[in-house]
Amino acid sequence: xxxxxxxxxxxxxxxxAVWMVQKIFGQWDALLAEEAVxxxxxxxxxxxxxxxxxxHVGVGDLDGGKRQLQTLEKMLQDxxxxxxxxxxxxxSAVLSLAYAGLDGEIKEAEGDLDGA
Length: 116
Fold this sequence. Notes:
Blueprint: H1 9-24, H2 28-33, H3 42-58, H4 62-77, E1 85-86, E2 89-90, H5 91-109
Antiparallel strand pairs: 1-2
Helix pairs in contact: 1-3, 3-4, 3-5, 4-5
């Protein structure tokens, strides 16, 4: 699978772009229906987790969003996370932004606008 162009850095970005567009346009059902991605691609797993978390928040399932946030937090604590890169960026840099974004979405949904 590692040699498959579908899972190259560029291929991963293409997959993630679809999820980001679905997120932007509030296509929550489509995001929640997405199948899991291979665990050996932390960038994809992280962005899949982020967009699914946003979808949970979007449909009012804050607990589901919080579970996805916890998954991102665990990923970021993994000392091996930066053994993977996406382009020139370490995966942790991208997933840190995703974590902050999802955390803000959850806080906003809870009414904590200052915290968001």
